[in-house]
Amino acid sequence: MLEKPILSGEIITLRPIVKEDAPGMFAALDDAESMRLTGTQASFTFEQVEAFCARLIDDPDRVDYAITLKDDPAYIGEVVLNDIDWENRSASFRIALGSSRYFGKGYGSEATRLLIDYGFRELKLHRIELEVYDFNPRA
User: Fold this and answer.
1) Non-local CB neighbours of 87 within 8 Å, separated by 6+ positions
2) Which domains does the chain carry?
3) What is the pLDDT of residues 28-43, one digit of tens each?
4) Is 41 exposed, middle or buried (0-12, 13-18, 19+ CB in 10 A)?
5) Which residues of 100-119 are buried (b: 16+ CB within 10 A; e: fewer)?
6) What's the whole-model pTM score?
């Protein structure tokens, strides 16, 4: 199993996503702006989100972190290395803040720096890629 240590920054903490993050992740599906920026169009039941969170714990080809504020362990978003190709040392990157009220505060920037640093330094990846929509200038 891939070790997923807690990563701490100045304003946020990244911790592995757990099943108990399902309520926060499910609530994020109600934020129209967050969903538009990530291209999420499908709808999900709470049970589907809960099962998804539980599956992430043991997936060897993904590193999924909950973004939390330094003083509050509640889920406010996620940052992910997925589609990890261990042979070629490459991965895709994904970030989503769960509510537009978290935009513009530096949370996404710090989460990105922490996870990218972890990917290159600790996981020894050589390539991390992010695909974005042209209407998402923050990305």
Assistant:
1) none
2) 7-129 (3.40.630.30)
3) 877 676 667 666 666 7
4) exposed
5) eebeeeebbebbeebbbebb
6) 0.88
